[in-house]
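RECORD TYPE: inverse folding
INPUT: structure tokens
STRUCTURE:
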């Protein structure tokens, strides 16, 4: 059995910055098995203050531009959250999880293997809706 994902050494709460969080998400994505035709860009969305933690929200937007259609008709977004506990020591690593647009299921990088099919399904569903 192949390992779920290459282990990422997640940054600690005390060393976290918004930019470093974005870099770590991109480091995680670089371990995913997706065809080279997929391109993505990422952005920081917002900070959320909770009772026991702080959450930092990011979006990674995927598409497959082609020579004929350099501007894709549809994109697929993955929403990442980096959570810093206010209870655990500041030297503890951050928690990371993500959801796919159109889904409520929460994925944890260390517990699941990313599938390119998820991106394809989102885009196919959007194109079907557009044609209706």
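DESIGNED SEQUENCE:
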């Amino acid at each position: 059995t192949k390992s779920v994902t290459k282990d990422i050494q997640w940054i600690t709460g005390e060393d976290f910055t918004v930019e470093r969080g974005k870099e770590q998400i991109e480091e995680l994505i670089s371990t995913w098995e997706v065809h080279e035709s997929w391109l993505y860009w990422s952005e920081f969305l917002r900070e959320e203050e909770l009772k026991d933690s702080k959450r930092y929200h990011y979006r990674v937007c995927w598409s497959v531009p082609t020579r004929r259609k350099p501007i894709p008709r549809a994109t697929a977004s993955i929403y990442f959250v980096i959570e810093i506990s206010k209870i655990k020591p500041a030297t503890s690593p951050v928690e990371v999880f993500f959801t796919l647009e159109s889904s409520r299921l929460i994925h944890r990088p260390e517990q699941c293997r990313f599938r390119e099919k998820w991106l394809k399904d989102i885009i196919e569903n959007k194109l079907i809706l557009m044609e209706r």
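NOTES: The mean pLDDT is 92.
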